[in-house]
Amino acid sequence: MWPWIKHWLDWVTTDVLRLSTTRPHGQAVHTRYEKAGLSLYDLPVPWNADAVIVEVLLRLPPSARKKSDFSVRFPGAEPIAAETLRPDGEDRHRLLFRLPVPLATTTGELLWKQRFLSRIAIPVLTAPDFLAGLKLTNATVAVRLGAQTVAAQAFVASQCKGLIACCTLKSPFVLAPVADLGLDAVFRSERSAAEFIVPVVLSSSQYASREAVVTACPPKHPHRVGAWTVTWRIGGKLLSTQRLEGLPVNRFEKSLRVTDTRFVITEKSGQMKAVRQLPALAELASVGPCFLVTSSEVGMAGLCRLQLHAVVSGDARPSLLLEQDVLITDGPLAFTPGMLEVAELGRVNGFELRHRNRVLGVASLSPVPAAALNAEGGFKPPPEFAWTHAADDELSERLNRLMNGSG
């Protein structure tokens, strides 16, 4: 075929004939964006995205496979040429455009040789809309005390080894825009006005999700008495503030309380359980005290050394059985130091829980004594008895039965 005839046929089939066999058809348009090193298909496109990628899947005849013939056009802007055109099967091709992020939601046109093929919608997420939908929940400040970490609102200042602030970020959109907004936690001492700003960076998987747990630790930990605040900020917007207080150790020690006592017993059958009142010792294999210890300070956390003493008949001074450092909070801690064989109890009348020289609680092994009444209405006083929470409950129960006439 003569060369000039071939060029003439190409011109007729591509620019004159309007047949589907000579034009692109069967297109599918996909929009995504790039942010924080990720390629995200989740729309809308945030205002601070690095680029908008429009990918079009087309069926192209051989005469329509020139990249330069394709472009996209948006209102008030110059047409943007295609970046790549790659084959994806026999007659299927992938056409890719890289676009700047529009200032607002817009709709453009996909063109082939200036002829309309399809509409391209790009929804845009603005900064105010993203910040309005961003929520911070479960904001918590934890204190490191020794080898343990516990959420607290108050702590023993001299025992603190560090603070850890954590929270959950939630958004109806993926969190990728956070990368440029500047999320940080501000730790501030109310006593010295010292302030530590800790930037927080999310991982790639967190940027691609709608919810993420984030943490922050200040470079220095508080060791003096005084209040601290932890404030979470993003893009100049204050999200949450928590306040916690470092207390002196003597205030913490004064707040220690035993709220109840129990006994942990092992029956001769091998069954183990906790009881308020001891059954006959002949039915048991071993016995151990259980004290529920707490602090009356709200949100408190602190370490203290508890001592377990055995009260022995004939001994003026109780015998020390155990010393142990424990973490005490404003919730009851079940302090169960161990169990003794019944044969080892001997002259033991009960147990005392102490901190330093202060008795916090008593667990008596002796049954509650009864007062014997005589004919004149008098009574013989019962033997000396260490009053316990269990005895107090039993007294209340007996008084209720007496008042209700049930004996």
Structure commentary:
The protein has 407 residues and is mainly beta. Helix content is 13%, strand content 50%. It contains seven helices and 31 strands. It has helices at residues 3-16, 127-133, 178-181, 204-207, 249-254, 342-345, 389-403; strands at residues 25-35, 38-40, 45-46, 51-59, 70-73, 80-81, 84-87, 92-99, 106-112, 115-122, 124-125, 135-145, 148-151, 154-156, 160-170, 183-189, 195-199, 211-216, 226-234, 237-247, 256-267, 272-275, 284-295, 300-312, 319-329, 333-335, 340-341, 348-355, 358-364, 372-373, 379-380. The strands form seven sheets. Strands 14, 16, 17, 19, 20, 24, 25, 28 and 29 form a nine-stranded mixed β-sheet that branches. A five-stranded antiparallel β-sheet has the order 2-1-4-8-7, with no helix packed on it. Strands 21, 22, 23, 26 and 27 form a five-stranded antiparallel β-sheet that branches. Strand 12 and strand 13 form a beta hairpin. The longest helix has 15 residues, at 389-403. The radius of gyration is 38 Å and the shape is elongated. The chain starts with a helix and ends with a helix. Residues 1-21 have low confidence and may be disordered.
What topology does this entry show?
Blueprint lengths: L2 H14 L8 E11 L2 E3 L4 E2 L4 E9 L10 E4 L6 E2 L2 E4 L4 E8 L6 E7 L2 E8 L1 E2 L1 H7 L1 E11 L2 E4 L2 E3 L3 E11 L7 H4 L1 E7 L5 E5 L4 H4 L3 E6 L9 E9 L2 E11 L1 H6 L1 E12 L4 E4 L8 E12 L4 E13 L6 E11 L3 E3 L4 E2 H4 L2 E8 L2 E7 L7 E2 L5 E2 L8 H15 L4
Parallel strand pairs: 3-11, 14-20, 14-24
Antiparallel strand pairs: 1-2, 1-4, 4-8, 5-6, 5-9, 7-8, 9-10, 12-13, 12-15, 15-18, 16-17, 16-19, 19-20, 21-22, 21-23, 23-26, 23-27, 24-25, 24-28, 28-29, 30-31
